[in-house]
Design brief:
Jelly Rolls, seven-stranded mixed β-sheet
Length: 239
């Protein structure tokens, strides 16, 4: 088993007038040659956006982009004509494919929005851009891992990659063995809140670990913890 620890206090940190963001991997003004990607996982940004502020229209291509609001709402518009609000407890996915432009703005006048934005390299390039979002009730992930994104499971958001994203909120101590869906996969786990142990690595708030070379990963979470798992194809070169 190979394991890489990503301490929360070693993430890249950039603060603008309206954006307070932490980067698990090199992004924008933050560059660390040892933290470019973990397998097919290219970006995990932990963003806080002030009321009424956000990202103006900008382009993307050939990336699977997932947004998970942790607190508050986000107003999304894109060049496919989509105009919608991504609410807390929603998950959004956008296949940028052959090219798309979008904007993301906090529509609230009195509170900031907090979110994870995740970029995953696609399985197939230059597909027709697509967008989807779905609301997942909080009780659906209490004391269990709820799959919210996958290439093939019902009641999940489809992703153009062999990737599975799962969320868990644990009101009591929780233990499970997580089995990879196929050979050659890696698992990136970030403890959103509380304390978790993944593959023997203890994680505090916003700590993460990337694990590869195993078929099963032991996961333990303390009461009051929240966990995000990202299973993706694992590779060390070519990205």
């Amino acid at each position: 088993m190979s394991s890489i620890f990503y301490p929360a206090n070693e993430r890249g940190h950039v603060q603008f007038d309206w954006l307070d963001t932490y980067h698990s991997f090199s992004f924008g003004q933050y560059h660390d040659p040892t933290k470019i990607h973990f397998g097919a996982l290219r970006v995990l940004n932990d963003d806080k956006i002030d009321a009424g502020m956000g990202f103006g229209t900008h382009p993307h291509d050939n990336m699977e982009i997932i947004t998970i609001p942790l607190f508050g709402d986000l107003h999304h518009r894109d060049s496919t004509g989509r105009d919608c609000i991504i609410k807390e407890h929603d998950v959004q996915i956008m296949s940028a494919g052959s090219g798309i432009q979008h904007s993301e703005v906090n529509p609230n006048k009195d509170k900031r929005v907090e979110l994870f934005q995740i970029w995953i390299f696609p399985k197939e390039r230059n597909i027709t851009p697509r967008y989807d979002q779905k609301s997942f009730l909080p009780e659906g992930r209490v004391d269990q891992l709820l799959t919210v994104v996958s290439p093939n499971e019902p009641d999940t958001l489809f992703i153009n990659q062999d990737a599975w994203l799962s969320l868990g909120h644990f009101k009591k101590p929780f233990s499970t063995n997580y089995s990879m869906h196929q050979a050659g996969q890696g698992l990136f786990a970030i403890c959103i809140e509380g304390t978790c142990t993944v593959g023997g690595q203890v994680l505090g708030r916003r700590d993460a670990v990337g694990i590869s070379g195993v078929e099963v990963v032991q996961i333990d979470a303390s009461a009051g913890s929240d966990l995000l798992l990202i299973e993706i194809p694992h590779f060390t070169t070519g990205a």
